[in-house]
Each structure stands twice: as C-alpha cells, then as structure tokens.
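INSTRUCTION: Work out how this chain folds

Fields: amino acid sequence; protein backbone structure tokens

Chain under study, with its fold:
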Amino acid sequence: MELRWLGVAGVELRSGGQTLAIDPYFTRVPLRHMLGRMQSDERLVADQIPRCDYVLVTHSHYDHLADVPEVVRNTGATVLGSANACRLLAALRVPTRQVRQITVGDSLALGDFHVEVLAGEHGKIPLTGLFNRPLSRRLSPPLRAWDYRMDCCFSFLVHAAGYRVLVGLGEYPQESPAADVLCIGVINSPECYRSLLRRARPQVVVPVHWDDLFRPLSQPTRPMLAPPAWTIPPLRRVDLAGFAHMIRAMSPATRVVIPERFHPYELVEIVAYPPKKTLDSARR
C-alpha cells in the first residue's frame, strides 16, 4: 500500500490499483478572500488527484470538503460523509448516486479497502460558533467558508494490503487491533496524544494538517501559525521537530515521519517489524 499526504488534512491511500482519498483540498483560498464566495480551482484539483475510487470526509469544514465535488465529478468516485457533508454536496450539485451518508460504527467495504468509521475529535478553532452550527436553510453555490458547518467529526481506520492506517483523532477503542500508521494533526493537547498513542499503539505517526492552508501549492510548504495565532508578539509557527520529540518521548518505539507533500510513501518502507526508534524528516 502507498500513502501520499496531499497537504492540509488530505491523505491518499493506494492499494490493488484502487485509490481512496480522505479530505482532499487543493484550492487554498487566500485569507484575504475568505469573506467572499469560494470556487474550486478545477484544473488544479484534476492535476493533483487525476483518479480516485472513494473519498472519505472526516467533517464538513471547507478545508476538508470544498474540493471534494470536483474530485468526484472528475473521477466518478463515491464520497462518504456525515449528514451535513451530504447536504452540502447536494447543494454543490454532486450526483446523489455518488454520495453516501455514514455514521459512527459503520463498517465499509470499499473495494480493496475496509474502513471502520470511528468517532472523531475536532480541535479548538477561532470563531467556532460560526463554523459549528446548523447549516443554512438556503445554500446557494458558490458557497462561503462559513457555509461549510460541522455536525460531527469522524476518524477512519482503513484496512488494506495487510496494513491498518488510522486517520484522525478520536475515541479509538482499546480492544480494536492496533494501527500500523497514525495520521494526526499537530495542535492538540499532550494529554490527547498520550491517550491516543496508548490506545492505537502505532508503529508510525505521520503528522498532517500542519501546513499553511492559505499558501498556494505553487509556493514551498511552510508550517501554519500555532494557535492562538492572534498572540502578538511574536507570531509562532507550528514546531514540527517539537511535535516529533513529544511523540517519541511518549512512545519511544514509535517512528515519526514528517511527510513531504505529494511524495508517495510505500508502507513496506516506513513500517518496520519490529518498530525502529528513529526520527525521519522529509527531503527539503
């Protein structure tokens, strides 16, 4: 199986000639345009994910969902998400036959992939009351950033080719099999990571959702501002090295792979049996 980090929270998995994408987002609307209506960059989306069989959506904020309609239209993929995600996709004119509502506890047979839908946990964000409330009764595309509102959040345990990849934070039951690879964001509390590492027991942690989502793909990747971003002085960016050292201190047998955007990682190369006590950085 192969894993690609797509930038922001996006993860792509390939196995047996099939492709599963989670939260693909490429358009990266600039911060100065956030008050206006958002339009996907159709060519950019098509270039970055030319083929796809299934799309999973962890939650329905714009940086997880806004480009999904273009992915689905370009590739014919089936998209699976919450009630809010499904309603937003309908408003964005995604064909009903390609949309499927899911809920926590679902077990999904998706071609070469088997997916367990688990409860997810979303970190604290500014203006949470704007982005986490009922959807507007009238959704007229193109939508605005605050039209993409979250009703619930999922994490996904993906089984394929003998590997288990857990994407997202959440209630991962201790009685479930451990994950080989854990893809998680970088701005949650140490207590959250300590609990998750104890329950998931991953061999490899891959940090995602750490890059500046307002910076276009044409520019080099840089870490996003660390919350609270409005603290002045000084503005700080996410410390990836600090995150990696924290994970290693909590779980010395766990390897941390800081991914390079769009670089394909063969799991047979990054998952070791037994795990190695090493820290990897992407090529820069």
About this structure: Residues 274-284 have pLDDT under 50 and may be disordered.
